[in-house]
Amino acid sequence: MTPRRYGTGDASYRAAGERDGIHRLVERFYEYMDTLPEARAIRAMHGPELARVREKLAVFLCAWLGGPNDYRARFGAISIPGFHARFAIDEAARDAWLLCMARAVGDQAWADDFKQYFLQAISVPAERCRVASVHRSLA
Question: Which of 7, 12, 25, 126 has the smallest number of Cβ neighbours within 10 A?
Fold first, then answer.
């Protein structure tokens, strides 16, 4: 069997279940953010209404995983780390975000090797957001 080439073309997008699968992931992610005590501080960084935030994350993940890139057309240009620099994102906040994501990924009917790939890959932008936050607080 040929190994899967996640990160190439739309392989990751397809492995995630395309748009519907990504929406399921995002819904579970925000359910964990709403319920896990470790996520209380990062949940407070969001407003009370999450519909637009959920949609932005889903549209971002679609493009990030190699699917349709509709983010700019729908929401405008964005630098993910630059946008998040305004929040106080320390290691604990980054880890809480990753915990919510890991729990949500664990609930998906994805191949185990894709789950591992996704969690390793998503840790990169999470860390970039933390670094951007630290740099802004030092400025």
Answer: 7
